[in-house]
Specification:
single chain; Ribosomal Protein L25, Chain P; 7-stranded mixed sheet; about 25% helix; RNA-binding
Length: about 550
RNA sequence: UGGGGUGUCGCCAAGCGGUAAGGCACUGGGUUUUGAUCCCAGCAUGCGCAGGUUCGAAUCCUGCCACCCCAGCCA
């Protein structure tokens, strides 16, 4: 599990290092815009950037790309810091914001104007779009393209001074309106926004655009490898153009990799935001969400997310990863670490007719393979609950649980036999009357009985009533229809049960458990007496 | 009909001219007081397609085809 990753980016970095192309160590950055919560797609980028720096002995900046105050907030900033840290990464003193560089950015823009490489354009947004041309036809020059440097300098200074309303003017790079790459058709690099910024307040009314900002921040921070997703490939010429046309002594290479796509969910902040706003989920941390906060609340360990990111690899292929891989990674971590416990989701009362009135206390290991977790006490008595699903009046062939006249072992307890099925007036089973075999006690069984199976149970008197929430895919289809999210939602993405957990689990401080035969569960971080199912156990039982 | 990318098993992914790694999933079998875990075995005569170069091609060349991204004063 510790083989070194050898994706194309790491190969490239290795090569740069070998050729002495990188002075000092490797420096990367994770640059989220604080306009939403981080999701597992961001985790891929976080693991890459922080992972690479760690492997090659460098460091990573956590840089907030906060150039669009209209969409950003401090809540998002805080959630992002929390999530990156929870994932296990430390940016140390390298916490920055694009807004930290607003003054320098402004000066570089002035420099571009002085070099005749940028101009103030007074066309409306509509007009700029119309003159940009199409994918197959070149655009046409703005009538303001030939403004004098002096006029541009004056106008830009007045833009900054707040003399104009939003949209009245923009600053554009003067590149090539006929370029086959539309990003190079005199892109807007500054716009006027009379909007309060969460960090700089009302100090600025002109804000730099991503394409102008990102490359400069990368250069100022000495980022040796600027890693981003594929959709920015067409922006790379612009990234390079900006750095080539200002007086700056560092020029990071931009390297793109494919973003993560996961089956049965969506990975766009816009859509996730919409689901939160529409209240189809309880919030950004709803356990069904692909957000880091949602996964955490569902009980997914950070180590599982890191392992997942490592297993999917880094390439330029547009893949669609199956949820089964994430589930595998989660189970693998929890299998080793989660203490075992018993819970009954859908209780069916069982009375042990030949068991004495006084109960007894049994002992069970918290983990079958990890003795370090120790043991817990398990109370056993005449009145128990078993899982309704574990009893069948007419068992299908291959059924290994309880049926009339049949034997089954109660895990860690005794072997029982079902003598009588009690039903109510509607014919619904309300109780099972069983006998137990005193000499079949777990660990000291001399009964010679060989039941077909083992089932879980809880003691009726001491078990704690709890709410159990079982989660499934948020969307029914592997690739949900993004145009109709509402009807693409899986109606059974969360199913709630009122069940029980054994007393030792209820009184424990531990957060994650494997409820035997049911799955891995985690205590909900907000709601008392509530457990979220993190993932089911693997199940090779094929009925029929 | 412009530009930029990508095509290796159901999914992810190694491979970088010397004769197809690995993981997930799946299928068998063994162990098991979780139908779990664990263990063992199986799972691409073929790398989008068609040609070509070569003693030898998934790897090089040519031509097709398919899919993804781009026309925000978003990032």
């Amino acid at each position: 599990m510790s083989e070194e990753a050898t994706d194309f980016i790491r190969q490239r970095i290795r090569q740069d290092l070998d050729q002495g192309a990188v002075e000092g160590g490797v420096v990367t950055r994770f640059p989220p815009e604080p306009n939403g919560y981080l999701h597992i797609g961001h985790a891929k980028s976080i693991c890459l950037n922080f992972g690479v720096a760690r492997e090659f002995g460098g460091y990573t900046y956590l840089r907030f790309d906060d150039t669009n105050p209209a969409k950003e907030s401090d809540e998002y900033v805080e959630s992002i810091k929390r999530d990156v840290a929870w994932l296990g990464y430390d940016w140390g003193s390298h916490l920055t914001h694009a807004s930290d560089y607003f003054d320098q950015l402004y000066n570089f823009a002035v420099e571009l104007i002085e070099r005749g490489k940028a101009f103030v354009c007074s066309l409306s947004g509509e007009e700029i779009r119309a003159s940009r041309g199409t994918l197959t036809e070149p655009g046409t020059d703005s009538p303001y393209r030939s403004r004098s440097i002096e006029e541009n300098l004056d106008l830009f200074a007045r833009m900054k001074a707040g003399e104009f309303a939003d949209g009245e003017h923009v600053l554009r790079a003067k590149i090539d309106m006929a370029s086959a790459n539309v990003n190079l058709r005199d892109p807007v690099i500054y716009r006027i926004r009379h909007v309060e910024h969460q960090r700089t307040g009302d100090r600025w009314v002109v804000y730099p655009m991503y394409d102008f900002t990102h490359c400069i921040c990368d250069a100022l921070e000495g980022i040796t490898h600027s890693l981003c997703t594929l959709e920015f490939q067409d922006h790379r010429p612009l990234y390079d153009w900006v750095l080539d046309n200002i007086n700056i002594n560092f020029h990071p290479p931009q390297i793109e990799f494919s973003r993560l796509a996961l089956e049965h969910t969506v990975m766009s902040k816009r859509l996730l935001n919409q689901m939160v706003d529409d209240a189809v989920v309880s919030g950004w941390d709803d356990p069904r969400m692909p957000t880091i906060a949602g996964l955490r609340r569902r009980g997914v360990p950070a180590a599982a997310i890191r392992d997942f990111c490592k297993r999917i690899g880094i390439t330029k292929q547009d893949g669609l990863v199956e949820m089964a891989l994430l589930d595998f990674c989660i189970r693998q971590v929890l299998e080793k670490s989660a203490p075992r416990g018993m819970s009954v989701l859908d209780p069916l009362p069982v009375t042990l007719t030949n068991y004495p009135d006084d109960g007894e206390t049994l002992e069970a290991a918290w983990h079958p393979q990890n003795a370090e977790l120790g043991n817990r006490a398990l109370s056993f008595s005449r009145q128990l609950y078993i899982e309704r699903e574990d009893f069948s009046e007419e068992p299908p062939k291959g059924f290994k649980r309880l049926s009339p006249g049949g034997l089954v072992r109660l895990r860690y307890g005794f072997i029982i036999q079902c003598d009588e099925v009690i039903k109510d007036a509607d014919g619904a089973i309300v109780e099972l009357r069983c006998r137990y075999f005193p000499e079949s006690k777990s660990g000291s069984d001399t009964s010679g009985l060989k039941p077909k199976g083992v089932i879980h149970w809880v003691d009726a008197a001491s078990a704690q009533p709890v709410t159990l929430r079982l989660y499934q895919q948020l969307f029914t289809d592997p690739v949900p229809d993004l145009d109709d999210l509402a009807s693409a939602l899986n109606p059974d993405s969360v199913v709630e049960f009122s069940g029980f957990v054994e007393a030792a689990v209820a009184s424990s401080e531990m957060q994650h458990f494997q409820f035997e035969r049911l799955g891995y569960y985690a205590r909900d971080s907000e709601l008392a007496d509530t457990f979220n199912r993190t993932v089911t156990l693997r199940d090779s039982y094929k009925p029929g």
